[in-house]
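Hi everyone,

Forwarding the result from last night's run.
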Amino acid sequence: MIEVKKLVKRFGLKTVLRGVDFKVQPGEFVALLGPNGAGKTTFLRILASLSRPSMGIVDIAGYSLPKQAAAVRARLGVVSHLPLVYDDLTAEENLTFYGRMYGIENASARITEVLEMVGLEARRRDLVRTFSRGMQQRLAIGRAVLHDPDVVLFDEPYTGLDQDASSMLDDVLQTVAGQGRTVVMTSHDLARAENLATRFDILSRGVIAASSTREGLGNGNLLTFYKQALAG
């Protein structure tokens, strides 16, 4: 579903990504981990077609970036720590707006389905400005999956959430992944990543320093694997 080869990204004289190789199979949930400044957000922005690679190959769902960016975007959902929803619209109006952008047929039924999935059906006609941070993030996930994308990218989706909101977001993420979508999520929360993901890739010094499936961790835990990857 995702294949990246020898990806390089430079900003002026600074090289952030130094030849990243990254492959994700359909239905995998990959947690992309690493220290601050490792290039995780830059990498996700390239996958989301929001930034161009300096060198390398990026294929998503059979389409190449940046040449086929429009086709890739139609198959992607993106969620960051900023919800990217409109405060002065209701939840329903937000999804109606995005539904029109994507040309979704039977949009009303799909909007109801998505609002139920993210637990906001009872608040569908309330202005987003009245929502808590966690509710806004759940609506952002609804926006991202509204057009039934093959791949969903989550860039630090738990930023700014309290424990209750984070727990609710766990449930929504598990639902999204459980529907067979391919998921890539950056996070600094190793415990949460360990509970959610099926694979863990460590980005360090501009490359994937280590990768393991959940089963591959064996008797160890993700924290130990993470520390060993960074020390290597």
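Residues 7 and 20 are 5 Å apart (CA to CA).

Cheers,
N.
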